[in-house]
Amino acid sequence: MKPRSARHSGISPQVRRAARLSLRNKRTEWREYRRQVTEFELGRYLPVL
Protein backbone atom coordinates (compact mmCIF):
# COMPACT_ATOMS: atom_id res chain seq x y z
CA MET A 1 0.00 0.00 0.00
CA LYS A 2 1.25 3.47 -0.83
CA PRO A 3 1.94 6.00 1.90
CA ARG A 4 -0.99 8.29 2.66
CA SER A 5 0.63 11.32 1.01
CA ALA A 6 1.20 9.38 -2.22
CA ARG A 7 -2.38 8.09 -2.31
CA HIS A 8 -3.83 11.62 -2.10
CA SER A 9 -1.30 13.45 -4.24
CA GLY A 10 -3.66 13.70 -7.25
CA ILE A 11 -6.59 15.09 -5.26
CA SER A 12 -6.85 18.82 -4.71
CA PRO A 13 -7.13 20.14 -1.16
CA GLN A 14 -10.55 21.59 -1.99
CA VAL A 15 -11.87 18.18 -3.06
CA ARG A 16 -10.43 16.51 0.05
CA ARG A 17 -12.06 19.17 2.24
CA ALA A 18 -15.41 18.82 0.47
CA ALA A 19 -15.31 15.04 0.88
CA ARG A 20 -14.37 15.31 4.55
CA LEU A 21 -17.20 17.79 5.23
CA SER A 22 -19.69 15.67 3.31
CA LEU A 23 -18.80 12.58 5.33
CA ARG A 24 -19.02 14.54 8.57
CA ASN A 25 -22.48 15.78 7.63
CA LYS A 26 -23.66 12.30 6.65
CA ARG A 27 -22.43 10.86 9.96
CA THR A 28 -24.35 13.57 11.83
CA GLU A 29 -27.44 12.90 9.73
CA TRP A 30 -27.20 9.16 10.42
CA ARG A 31 -26.85 9.70 14.20
CA GLU A 32 -29.99 11.86 14.17
CA TYR A 33 -31.89 9.33 12.03
CA ARG A 34 -30.99 6.41 14.31
CA ARG A 35 -32.68 8.18 17.25
CA GLN A 36 -36.08 8.12 15.53
CA VAL A 37 -38.54 5.40 16.48
CA THR A 38 -40.91 4.36 13.71
CA GLU A 39 -44.51 3.20 14.00
CA PHE A 40 -43.35 -0.23 12.84
CA GLU A 41 -40.83 -0.46 15.67
CA LEU A 42 -43.39 0.69 18.24
CA GLY A 43 -45.90 -1.91 17.08
CA ARG A 44 -43.38 -4.69 16.90
CA TYR A 45 -41.23 -4.14 19.99
CA LEU A 46 -43.33 -2.16 22.49
CA PRO A 47 -45.72 -5.05 23.27
CA VAL A 48 -42.70 -7.17 24.25
CA LEU A 49 -41.85 -4.74 27.03
Shape estimate: rod-shaped
How many whole angstroms does the radius of gyration measure?
20 Å
The assigned structural class equals mainly alpha
Major β-sheet annotation: none
How far the N terminus sits from the C terminus, by CA atoms, comes to 50 Å
What percent of residues adopt helix (DSSP H or I)?
Answer: 55-70%
| Total helical elements | 3
Low-confidence spans:
none
The total tally of domains equals 1
Average pLDDT, rounded to a whole number, is 87
Overall number of strands: 0
Strand content: under 5%
What is the N-to-C succession of helices and strands?
Answer: HHH
Description of the molecule:
The protein has 49 residues and is mainly α. It has one domain. Helices cover 67% and strands 0% of the residues. The radius of gyration is 20 Å and the shape is rod-shaped.
